[in-house]
Amino acid sequence: MFSVFKSVSMDFASARLAILSVLQGVCAEDLPRLLRWMRTTNDFDEFTSSNDDIILRNIAEDLRHRLPTEAMLSSEHLAVQKLHQQTKPTVHIDAFLYDDDCIDSLCEEGKMSRNYCLTCGSHQTAPLEFISHSFSLMELKFLYRHVLPDLTGKAVVDVGSRLGAVLFGGYFYSSASQIYGVEMNTDFCQLQEVIIAKYQLHERLKVINADICTQASLLQNADIIVMNNVFEYFLDRSEQARSWEFIRQNVIKKSSLLVTVPSLEKSLSELQVDIQLNQWVEALPLDYDVFLEEDADREALEQIYLYKIL
Ligand SMILES: C[S@@+](CC[C@H](N)C(=O)[O-])C[C@H]1O[C@@H](n2cnc3c(N)ncnc32)[C@H](O)[C@@H]1O
Predict the structure, then answer these.
(1) Which of 69, 126, 110 is nearest to 92 (CA)?
(2) How far is ligand 1, taken at its centre, from the CA of residue 131, in Å?
(3) Per-residue pLDDT at 290
(4) Is the beta carbon of 136 within 6 A of some atom in ligand 1?
(5) What is the pLDDT of residues 82-121, one digit of tens each?
(6) Which range of residues forms the domain containing residue 80?
(7) Terminus of the chain with fewer CB atoms < 10 Å: N or C?
């Protein structure tokens, strides 16, 4: 049956009629069995899950057209300044917007290079450092489908939601009932709102334009808190320390889960903070082998850490 549908590309109305006509053609004694199978089978998962990937790719493409290649905005004064202070030649490439194939195309078009010349700094011969300010689709799928438990009825907070990758990923890859993004940059909040309105995602997604340090009750009530490289590139050291202290004081719901990139130890190691990790969290081990996608980048997945709040 599916091979017939696959070979012909039908629109919704024709596909619906074709399905109804198949049902009408089923012998009466087998119809209840067939209907039960349609209601309970996993055979449709392949179709529904690849549809989620397609919508997320469409959102990424949409965002690409609305942003410069580096996906950074002039309103991110400190981040732009920090980019220029990197000791190794570095490109900012947003992994949600650009997968490896997209980067290859940009390189072919001469709009980007993966390498630079060791002597003069031109983009010729040694690999450049790549920094991404968003999770890739692959990381989002790993996070929501393999790291986190069933999120039915749960509230997720993405601290520093930027383009909304964690929000959109959560919408399509999880059943979380509410996913909040808190982002201090107004331009990025407006961009997330445009996508939420265009793809009609407002029922479960909400963007808050604020410094996370004003959102105590949101953090206190969250079941899952996601912190992907939130502060390091965007705040000076004293602000990073102040923000981590605030996170420590308010991410306190027992058994809630905290996802970080990189590890808490690494994020806090160079800051003047008084945070006793062993009194706050328990690190939970992750199984990378459960994720067998062809394009899985194990090195990127190994940067993701999961903690249970004590
Ligand atoms: C690396 S991006 C994370 C993107 C997104 N969470 C993801 O994983 O795809 C970090 C974002 O955090 C925002 N940010 C940094 N400090 C913040 C703060 N104190 N309150 C709210 N947003 C903050 C930055 O503006 C930046 O857009």
Answers:
(1) 69
(2) 14
(3) 78
(4) no
(5) 777 776 767 778 999 998 777 777 777 777 666 655 555 5
(6) 66-131
(7) N
CA 46 – CA 54 distance, rounded (Å): 12
Cβ–ligand 1 contact at 182 (below 6 Å): yes
Atom of ligand 1 nearest to the CA of 162: 27
Based on the domain organization, do 157 and 120 belong to the same domain? no
CB of 135 closer than 6 angstroms to any ligand 1 atom: yes
- DSSP for residue 8: S
Query: Which has more confidence, 231 or 12?
Result: 231
Query: What's the total number of domains in the chain?
Result: 2
User: Over 90: is that where the pLDDT of 291 sits?
Assistant: no
Check which CATH number belongs to the domain holding 197 and give it. Answer: 3.40.50.150
Asked if residue 240 lies in contact with residue 250, where contact means CB atoms within 8 angstroms, the answer is: no
Compute the distance from residue 287 Cα to the ligand 1 centre, in Å.
26
Mutation test of ligand 1: which of 93, 134, 234 has the most ligand atoms closer than 8 Å to its C-beta?
234
| Atom nearest to 165 CA in ligand 1 | 9
Same domain as 119, residue 247: no
215, 155: one domain: yes
Q: Is 201 in the pocket of ligand 1 (CB under 6 A)?
A: no
Residues 196 and 176 in one domain: yes
Please report whether residue 240 resides in a domain: yes
Give pTM, 2 decimals. 0.82
Q: Are 74 and 119 within one domain? A: yes
| pLDDT of amino acid 111 | 72
Pocket flag, ligand 1, residue 180 (CB < 6 Å): no
Question: Is there a single domain that holds both residue 299 and residue 156?
Answer: yes
152 occurs within a structural domain: yes
Q: What three-state secondary structure class fits 218? A: helix
Distance CA(172)–CA(201), nearest Å, equals 10
pLDDT at 5 over 70: no
pLDDT digits (tens, 9 = 90+) for 114-123: 665 555 555 5
C-beta 281 within 6 A of ligand 1: no
- Regarding whether 189 and 106 lie in a shared domain, the answer is no
Give the sheet arrangement for strand 224-228, strand by strand.
205-209, 178-183, 155-159, 224-228, 257-261, 305-309, 281-284
C-alpha 233 – ligand 1 centre gap (Å): 9
